[in-house]
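A.,

Following up on our hallway conversation. C-alpha cells first:
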C-alpha cells in the first residue's frame, strides 16, 4: 500500500459538519436580501461550493446582487457560523494518529481563509495542521490552486500527497494537482459510492473509522 508524506483535508463535509452554520447563514442572507427562501432540501447544496457560485445558482440574481448576498452570508459565518461546526465522530483521533505517525497535515477548502481559520480554531483543530489554505476574497482560486498552495507550504511533491474530500470539487481539484484522492461518503457532496468511484479514488470512506483503518495500514 502506498505511503503518503502529506494528508490534505477538505473542511466542509470532511473534517467538520458545518451544515448548521451554513444553513443558518443562508436563511440570514435570504431575510436581509428579501430573497424567496429555497426549500430545506436544497440547503445541503450550499456546503462545499464557493459561496458566490451558490447564490448565483439558486436565485435569479446578477453578479452584483450575488456579491451583496455573499457579504451577508460571510457576516453570519464569521460572527456566529464559526461556532456552529462540529467535528465528525473519530476525527480528533484520526488527526492525532496521523500527527503521531509523522504525517504532514493540511487543509484545502473553498471556504474563505479567515473564516476557515476561525472555524478550525473554534473546533480546537487549527493547531493540528501544518498548512491551512482557503479561498481568496474574490473567490478566484480553484480547488486545484488551493491544493497547490498547500503542497508548496508543506514542501511535498504531488505524488507524495493525498486529498480527502466529499465532493466533485475535491476530486477534480486533486486530479488537476496530480495528487491521489480519497472520497468520503459521509459528507454532503457525494450522494453514494458510485459517484465517488467515477473519479478513480484510491479509497472510499463511509465513516471516519474507515480512514483510521486505511491510514493505520499505510
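Then the amino acids I'd put at each of the 218 positions:
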Amino acid at each position: 500500500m502506498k505511503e503518503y508524506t502529506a494528508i490534505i483535508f477538505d473542511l466542509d463535509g470532511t473534517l467538520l459538519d458545518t451544515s448548521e452554520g451554513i444553513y443558518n447563514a443562508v436563511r440570514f442572507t435570504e431575510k436581509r436580501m428579501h430573497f424567496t427562501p429555497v426549500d430545506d432540501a436544497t440547503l445541503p447544496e450550499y456546503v462545499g461550493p464557493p459561496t458566490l457560485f451558490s447564490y448565483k445558482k439558486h436565485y435569479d440574481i446578477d453578479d452584483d446582487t450575488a456579491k451583496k448576498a455573499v457579504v451577508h452570508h460571510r457576516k453570519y459565518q464569521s460572527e456566529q457560523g464559526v461556532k456552529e461546526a462540529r467535528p465528525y465522530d473519530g476525527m480528533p483521533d484520526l488527526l492525532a494518529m496521523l500527527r503521531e505517525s509523522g504525517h504532514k497535515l493540511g487543509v484545502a477548502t473553498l471556504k474563505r481563509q479567515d473564516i476557515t481559520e476561525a472555524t478550525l480554531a473554534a473546533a480546537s483543530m487549527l493547531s493540528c495542521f501544518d498548512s491551512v489554505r482557503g479561498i481568496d476574497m474574490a473567490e478566484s482560486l480553484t480547488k486545484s490552486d488551493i491544493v497547490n498552495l498547500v503542497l508548496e507550504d508543506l514542501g511535498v511533491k504531488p505524488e507524495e500527497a493525498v486529498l480527502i474530500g466529499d465532493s466533485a470539487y475535491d476530486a477534480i481539484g486533486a486530479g488537476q494537482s496530480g495528487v491521489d484522492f480519497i472520497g468520503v461518503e459521509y459528507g454532503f457532496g457525494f450522494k453514494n459510492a458510485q459517484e465517488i468511484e467515477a473519479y478513480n479514488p484510491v479509497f472510499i470512506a463511509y465513516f471516519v473509522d474507515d480512514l483510521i483503518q486505511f491510514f493505520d495500514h499505510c
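The chain has nine helices and eight strands. Curious whether your intuition agrees with the design.

B.
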